[in-house]
Design goal:
Length: 159
């Protein structure tokens, strides 16, 4: 049986965390549809699928749900806040590592969201520094990192 060689955390997870019903679902799983799964792997109908199901179950348990990771990251970023300037380094590192997971991470929305998550009084100072003469903030002209364009992170760090 495939789970006979489990050791350490994996063995504890299988023996103590998984219920008998959950174990049965994993071991007796059979693919019920054809096509392509969320990882672009081919699915064949009525094929034993216990290894695939076991691997997905392990990954989702230990790494969190990854089947729609962009939606999860979007939700996390929309709720991420930096309450004090003491949390700024953590906020910046967390925000940047998550937003870079998106294929289209250079949207103006994510740049504005970065600034909106800062402490309220600090947000006003940063916006004041970014505004043009007509009162608009041209987020498309700003980047997340160093370069020839104005850097959002440098503006945030210096104010």
């Amino acid at each position: 049986m495939i789970v006979a060689s489990f050791t350490g955390h994996l063995r504890g997870w299988w023996d103590n965390y998984m219920s008998i019903e959950q174990k049965a679902v994993v071991i007796n799983d059979i693919a019920d549809n054809e096509g392509v799964d969320n990882l672009d792997m081919a699915l064949v109908k009525n094929k034993e699928d216990d290894v695939y199901t076991l691997v997905l179950t392990i990954l989702e348990h230990f790494n969190g749900r990854f089947t729609n990771q962009y939606e999860t990251v979007r939700i996390l970023l929309n709720g991420l806040r930096c309450r004090t300037l003491g949390e700024f380094r953590w906020y910046k590192d967390t925000y940047m590592s998550r937003v870079m997971e998106f294929p289209k991470n250079n949207y103006e929305h994510w740049k504005a969201k970065f600034i909106d998550g800062l402490p309220p009084l600090f947000v006003e100072r940063v916006r004041k520094a970014l505004r043009t003469n007509d009162g608009e903030i041209p987020y498309k002209d700003y980047t997340y990192g160093s370069g020839e364009e104005v850097d959002l992170l440098d503006i945030s760090d210096s104010n």
